[in-house]
Amino acid sequence: MEYFKCPKIQYEGPTSKNPFSFKHYDENALIEGKSMKDHLRFAAPYWHVMRNSLADPFGDGTALMPWDDGSKSIENALNRVDVFFEFLEKMGIDFYCWHDRDIAPELNDLSASNKALDAVVEKLNDKQSETGVKLLWGTACLFSHPRYSQGAATSPSADVYAYAAAQVKKAMECTHALDGLGYTFWGGREGYATLLNTNMKRELDHLAHFLHMAVDHAKKIGFKGAFYIEPKPREPSTHQYDSDSAACLNFLREYNLIDHFTLNIETNHATLAGHTMEHELTVAINAGRLGSIDANQGDELIGWDTDQFPSNIYLTTQVMMKVLEMGGLKSGGLNFDAKRRRESHDPIDLIYAHIGGMDAFARGLKIAHAIREDGRLSKFLKERYETFDSGIGLDVDVSKSTFESLEQYAIKSGEPILASGRQELLENLINEFI
Ligand code: XLS
Ligand code: NI
Ligand code: NI
């Protein structure tokens, strides 16, 4: 059965008017010695592609899913796998991500849920070998079920904490069974609504121990994939502990976890945190801790996680400048953690949405490369700090200066002459390329 009524999407170039073609994503085209495909490492999320009904707080789902019988049966879960792989194949997307509860139903008890997972993982394994598709990362859904309403690894209940640990243990084992390249922790309910009922220190200690147990378990089972933390400041919790890159890095350092985790940065979470994506990526890269990217975008008129498909070329350019600057993503990729608008209910809208996201990133990559090759921007940035390349500035850079030596220098040199920051000129420069 064919559910996506379109051919395999191919590159036809910028002048094509065919809506079922890439205008910019030419997977084998080489940029800085590497194919576009290898730069971009696109991934599709099982939860949005297969499971998102497009419900919102005011109404039920609208998405048409003719393949889904709406039941919690394993058969239904197995059917979805075929549909998902039809989608990946048509899109030419080589990686995917899942939550345990996206791929298999949560049944009456943990053992039954685990058995259901095993059945689906077996099928996913077959599909992966058949197609060469790889699992970018797996994760456990520790936020939907009512038991997690007060947190999972930060729940005030030890019983819930144990349940969450059991769920993560199994999800890690499934990820490992599928040769997953990574495993993500997004703390949806790991936070609080009021400090009146919350012992923050105790909850954070529990969370840290939870992550240490995950690191230990990975060793035990031989899982060598990357561990990612995905920051988000709020929603569903009022205050989430992993609020942004800086907060996550601080937590990881405080609890001696920093060597075991990198960050998975999502654009819409950055904007919810009051930052730009560029800021969040830069903070992570400065610490050598950018692992992967959830490639979506938000709506600046709406204050929640709208998880839209990335269409903003400035944004994709900034992201790809950062990725090129760090020498490329290693185990991570660009995961479209994005959903269609509620109005876009047809299965084929999934295809249009991903074509748009892939082309926006391909353009971002080409533009970022052109800006780097041009060299004016990096030259300006280098020259702006030139006074630190010699003399008193160099003393600062190599930590040789003291307050006394700087005081002597300042008295002798008189009032500093400052060069312009030239923001507008630099914005004009970027626009030359967009
Ligand atoms: C939700 C998060 C979630 C994670 C995976 O806002 O983005 O989808 O990526 O749990
Ligand atoms: Ni995400
Ligand atoms: Ni999100």
Report on the structure:
With 434 residues, the chain is of the alpha/beta class. The chain folds into 2 domains: 25-374, TIM Barrel (Alpha-Beta Barrel); 389-433, no CATH class. The protein is 47% helix and 11% strand. The strands form 4 sheets. The chain has an 8-stranded parallel β-sheet with strand order 7-6-5-14-13-12-10-8. Strands 1-2 form a two-stranded parallel sheet. Helix 11 links the parallel strand 13 (290-294) and strand 14 (334-335). Bound molecules: D-xylose and nickel (II) ion (2 copies). Residues 186, 230, 266, 294, 337 line the site of one nickel (II) ion. D-xylose (XLS) binds next to loops.
From the alpha carbons, calculate the radius of gyration and give it in angstroms: 24 Å
Count of runs of 4 or more consecutive helical residues: 16
Q: Which stretches are poorly predicted, pLDDT < 50 over at least 5 residues?
A: none
CATH superfamily of the largest domain: Divalent-metal-dependent TIM barrel enzymes
Helix content class: 40-55%
Silhouette: globular
Number of domains: 2
CATH architecture of the largest domain: Alpha-Beta Barrel
CATH fold descriptor of the largest domain: TIM Barrel
Q: Main β-sheet, in a few words?
A: 8 strands, parallel
Mean pLDDT level: 98
Cross-sheet strand order for the largest sheet:
7-6-5-14-13-12-10-8
CATH C-level of the largest domain: Alpha Beta
Portion of residues in beta strands equals 5-15%
Helix-strand pattern, N to C? EEEEHEHHEHHEHEEHEEHEHHEHEHHHHH
Quantity of strands, as a count: 14
What structural class do you assign from the helix and strand content?
alpha/beta
Distance between the termini: 42 Å
What hetero molecules are bound to the protein chains?
Answer: D-xylose, nickel (II) ion
